[in-house]
Every structure is written in C-alpha cells, then in structure tokens.
Amino acid sequence: LAAEPANIVAWNNRGLALEALGRDAEAAESFQRALALRPGTPEIHFSLGNVLHRLGRHEEAAEHYRRTLALWPNFARAHANLGSALFKLRRWDDALQSLRQAVRLQPDANKPEVAKIHEAIGFALQHLLRDQESLDSFDTALSIDPGNTGIMSSKANALYALGRIDEARELIEKAIGLQPRGIALYTTLSQMKRFAAGDPAITAMEALLPDLDAQPAAQQANLHFALGKAYDDSGDADRAFPHFAAGNALVRRRIDYDESAELAHMQGIAAVFTPQLMRDKAGQGDKSDRPIFIIGMPRSGTTLVEQILASHPEVFGAGEQKKFGEAVAALIQPGQSDY
Asked: Which of 205, 198, 239 is CA-nearest to residue 222?
C-alpha cells in the first residue's frame, strides 16, 4: 500500500489479516478503504459486516449484509449473519425471515453450522412467544447435531417454558453427562431442580472450583450462583451465602454504574411525561378493555396480584412482558438519547 495506495486487493487482504488477528476495529477501517475505491464489491461488504457485527455495530452490519445480498441474493451465510444482526437489534420477525432463508439456501442441510441456524430460529421464536415452534426448531437442530450440549440446553429451556419440567431436567442432565465440566449446563440445571444434600451434581460443581479462576468472570459468577442455590436448597445457608456473595461481587465488577446518569434519566422521565403530555395523548391506542395491566415497583407485590387474578378461570397470567421496552429500543438509533 505504501507503493500503491489505491490497491483494492491489498486493502481487502489487510482487513482479512487484521480480522484474523482479532483487531476488528482496524480491519473495519481497511475494508472501508477498499469499499471507498470500489463500492460494489459484495465480498468486502460481507467482511465489513462481519467485523461491525462483532464490534456491536449491528445496524451498520445489517446494512452491509443487505448490500452483499443485493449483489449475491443466494449467499446463505449473508442471510444467516443478517438474521444474527437483526436478532441483536431485537427485530425478531425480520431475523426469523432471514434465518429461514439461510436454511433454504444451504446446499448441505446436515452440516453443524445449519444446526446452529435452526437453534437461532428457535431463539427468535421464543422471543415471539411461539414456544412450541421454538421447540420444533431445537429438535431439528439436534437431529442434525445430536451431541451438541449447547443446543440440548436450548431445548431444555424451551421444554421448561412449556411446563415440561421433568423432561427439561432429564435433558440437561444428559447434556452434563456428555460435558461434565460445562459450567453453563449446571447453571441451567440449577433453575430446573431442587437440590438435596449429597446430590452428585453438587459434588460435580465443587470439583470445578479449583480451576475456576481460569474461566471468564461471567462463567465464574454462574458457577457460584448455581452452587449457592444448591447449598441453599439443601438447607446449608452457611455454605450458600459465600457463593452468592462471590457471584455478586464478580457481576458488580462488570457493572458501570453512574449515579448521576441514573438520576438524570429519572429526571428526564419526569420532564417529558408531564400531565399535559398525558392529556394531549389521551384516547390513543387500542380501545379493548380486555388486557389487565399490573404496574408497580420491583418487590411491591405485582407478581402476587397477577397470581391472584390468574386464579380466575377467565384470566390468563402472561408473566412479565418486555414487548414495550423492546419496541422502544428498536426506535432508538445509535447516539440518540432515550427521548
């Protein structure tokens, strides 16, 4: 490039080399330089989309995947990666459409990477509250890659959501049999069973403690929480509490809490949602009186109120829904304030 600054191949290959070294931000700059010289190059758009996706710049990544597909409409990996970016943007329906198109275009339907796409389809369906369909997708993924403990865990969570708790627990225990040192599997197991003193799973988790420092902080925290729950279930609070404390300490290190920013956020809510605004916006929305909204502060009894109401045969308790927050998040562009 020093000798020939406009060499597109050199810019692209430099980007690929930087990507292989894990230097995604620098790789993105190289791919952008290549595209500035030749904007209509699909493989460079695809490479740039990949590094932007890993950098968390999902909206930009999605745009480069779309440009790739405008030129290579049958490129299955671009459809799959676009689906992944849209998933991160919480655009579940759009993600589902792209992921399914990726499956349709796969030349070999029995490859492990196709199983991962089916698993991603299952996740998207879960977010759309289509739990039975999500279970079908996880089953398809496991039919392709039956020994994949990650997909087994995904299916176990789907079974649990459908109330098939015994099946969920049996499946996650089978996964642990295949991967006895899989911390994430014990985390899932701890959510699906009540432990008793002498449970072999407790012994297995204890055996992971000596090497725990070599694991990522999130995994360390997960094992502490799982062990804390196991000890607590078995009535050993003295052994449970140190693990809960250790897990919380690890999580706290990853939380960048800014009290002044939080207070400003609360003040922003008060400043925007004035009584006058509420009067001006009155009468909009759906006219149905069927939904019952339970609103309250955390730990104020909202769940109890829901359970009481849901005991009536004509009322269904839908749990704590996140649809409104997800809809708002999808409207906020990078760099914009909340309002």
From this structure: 205
Phi, psi of 229 (to 5 degrees): -65, -40
Phi-psi region of 293 (alpha: psi -120 to 50; beta: other; left: phi over 0): beta
Taking 80 as the threshold, does the pLDDT of residue 195 lie above it?
yes
Residue 191, classed as helix, strand or coil, is: coil
Q: Is the pLDDT of residue 328 over 70?
A: yes
Distance, first Cα to last Cα, the chain: 45
Q: Both tokens of residue 181?
A: 């040192």
Distance CA 118, CA 129 (A): 17
Residues written for the chain: 339
Structure tokens at 43: 């493989």
Cα–Cα distance measured from residue 50 to residue 293, given in angstroms and rounded to the nearest whole number: 41
If we measure between CA atoms, which residue out of 101, 97, 134 comes closest to residue 119?
A: 134
How far is Cα 87 from Cα 58, in angstroms, rounded to an integer? 9
170 or 109, greater pLDDT? 170
Rounded to an integer, the average pLDDT of 159-176 is 93
C-alpha–C-alpha distance, residues 292 and 202, integer Å: 42
C-alpha–C-alpha distance, residues 49 and 43, integer Å: 10
Ramachandran angles phi, psi of 160, nearest 5°: -60, -40
